[in-house]
From TrEMBL:
GO terms for MF: metal ion binding; phosphatase activity
Cofactor: Zn(2+); Mg(2+)
Residue sites binding substrate per the record: 11-13, 19-23, 54-57, 111-112, 143
Site (Stabilizes the phosphoryl group): 54, 111-112
Name of the molecule in the record: D,D-heptose 1,7-bisphosphate phosphatase
Entry's localization field: Cytoplasm
GO CC entries: cytoplasm
An example Gene Ontology biological process: carbohydrate metabolic process
Positions annotated to bind Mg(2+): 11, 13, 142-143
C-alpha cells in the first residue's frame, strides 16, 4: 500500500521569484519574492512535498540552455534550504508552439495549462511508493494557465496577486481559484495550512 502524501505544486516566475519580464538565465537574475522562502519552509514543516511546475520556452527560443536552468533551480533550492525548506523536483516545459525546435517540439503537450508536468510528478511519486492525495494537494500560481492546470489536474487552485496576478483573466475564463492570496506566504500561511 502506497503512502499518501500532500504536495504543494508551485509555479515559479511571479509566484516564487520576481518576474523580470524575460527569462531568468543566471542565479544573479533570480530574486525571491518577499517571504516566499518562509512559505516553502512552513509547507515542508507541515509535511508537504514541494514540486515546481514551470513553462520555460526560453529553451526553445534559444535564449538559455538546460544547464543554466538547472543552475537557477539549484540556487533556488539553496535559498529555500537556508530557511529549512526545499523542493523535491522542478519540472519544466521547454517548448513553445510559436518557436519550433527540433529537440523540444516533442514536449509541446507539457505546457500549462496542459497537465503533463503534474502527471509526470504524480507518476514519479508512485514509482517511489507514494500516492499524491489530491484532496490535500494544492497548485499555487499567478496566471490563469496555472489555475486551469490545477483544475485540469484535480488539484486545489490558489491564485497569488504577485507576478501577473491574473484575477480578471480567471474571471473571463470562468476559472475560480479556491483562494486569492497577496503572495505565496499568504497562500500558505493564510489559507493552505488552515485547511
Amino acid at each position: 500500500m502506497r503512502e499518501k502524501i500532500a504536495v504543494l505544486f508551485l509555479d515559479r516566475d511571479g509566484t516564487i521569484n520576481h518576474d523580470i519580464g524575460t527569462y531568468v538565465r543566471h542565479r544573479d537574475e533570480f530574486r525571491l519574492i518577499e517571504r516566499a522562502d518562509d512559505a516553502v519552509a512552513m509547507a515542508v514543516a507541515a509535511g508537504f512535498h514541494v514540486i515546481i511546475i514551470t513553462n520555460q520556452a526560453g529553451l526553445a527560443k534559444g535564449i538559455m540552455d538546460e544547464v543554466q536552468l538547472d543552475e537557477v533551480h539549484a540556487y533556488m533550492n539553496e535559498l529555500f534550504m537556508k530557511k529549512g525548506g526545499r523542493f523535491d523536483k522542478a519540472y519544466y516545459c521547454p517548448s513553445h508552439p510559436d518557436y519550433p525546435h527540433p529537440v523540444y517540439d516533442r514536449f509541446l503537450n507539457c505546457r500549462k495549462p496542459g497537465t503533463g508536468m503534474v502527471e509526470r510528478a504524480i507518476e514519479e511519486y508512485r514509482t517511489k511508493g507514494m500516492e499524491v492525495d489530491m484532496q490535500r494537494s494544492f497548485f499555487v500560481g499567478d496566471k490563469a494557465v496555472d489555475i486551469e492546470c490545477a483544475r485540469n489536474s484535480g488539484l486545489r487552485p490558489v491564485l497569488v496577486r504577485t507576478g501577473y496576478g491574473e484575477e480578471e483573466a480567471c474571471r473571463r475564463k470562468h476559472l475560480v481559484p479556491e483562494y486569492v492570496a497577496r503572495d505565496l506566504y499568504d497562500a500558505v500561511h493564510g489559507y493552505i495550512l488552515k485547511q
